[in-house]
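# step 3/5: fold
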Amino acid sequence: MRQILSALVLACCAALGSGPARAQTELSALARIEPARSGVVAEGGQIALTLGIDQAVPFRAFLLDDPPRLVVDFREVDFTGASPAALDPEGLLGEIRWGRFRPGWSRMVAELVTPAALVEAVERTGATPRITLRLDPVAADDFAARAGAPASALWDLPQPAAIDTAPHRRQDGSAPLRIVLDPGHGGIDPGAEAEGHSEAVLVMTFARELKEALTRAGMEVLMTREEDVFVPLETRLTVARASGADALISLHADALAEGQATGATAYHFDPAASDDAARKLAERHDRADLLAGVDLEGHDDEVAGVLMDLARAETQPRSLRLSQVMVGAIREAGLKMYKHPVQGADFSVLKAPDFPSVLLELGFLSSEADRKRLLDAEWRKRMVAAIAGGLETWAQADAAEARLLRQ
């Protein structure tokens, strides 16, 4: 299956020029989808997905499992003006999403209602270029055996971090505090959405304002993303580790489909967390990688797990203190907090064993009051000041503890 898909991709590129390299060089300009020529239909027991575009582009398509999903990468397509619901009005496919996946690349991911084989992936050129993908239902076992990212798609996996040979030592106040800000979601994954606002955009705005304040306070600040682009969860940790982070702060503004929630919440890593709201949010955060088509196959071995647990014996209490101090600072500023403002959660972005990390839910987009706060520049200014003050307070106490431990 992988060989067939790779051949299809190369054939598409060859049809556009003298070969793959030429196609990707000459046709890197942004193509636009034409909704009137796009759609999903049932044909002879198969499902046909057609995407009409205004110019031909290199693309590749493959399948992933758990859940079964079709992934299509483009270089590069603008989906503005199209909607997944209009593309597939009969619901022949499951949830469909698209957007920027990395600079120069777009991605579309469609969950499959039933397991299926990708039997055709072709691009028609000429005056009305279009991409056609055909899916044929197969047994679940057959699908699982064939699914997997082809070798040509390995670029979307987290890459090894370029790190110094010397391990990063715990901060002791002798150097500027190095903070990594992680604006959640982005690109193909907009996060929570409500009243025309997306989580990805709101937290990016907040992260830029927070970065400016922390930099003025003398800290070194790096962001896991600087634009509206998708970054896999594991890559976010890789970025923090490669930078020698003293702490990671992941910023979110999620939504709950059921029940009411309002106010800010600080989460630290706790694999045994049982709070229902935290559990639901953890499922949403981790599912973002699946819906963006990332292959999450592979697990840590037992030895690595033991070593990480040993490292967390030091970093986990520091993460807890960071979340507590941050919540205290936000409360002192008179800002709205969730009824349980400090919680443990099994968020993937909190699992790094070698540096403290906190996930801060600034509020809930499902709450009208929280949405108004997030859009209010004055509220953001007060929240930024509170977080910056909390970080400074935590850093001073954390450095004092580090100096005592070394004596």
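# step 4/5: annotate
The chain has ten helices and 18 strands.
# step 5/5: archive (pending)
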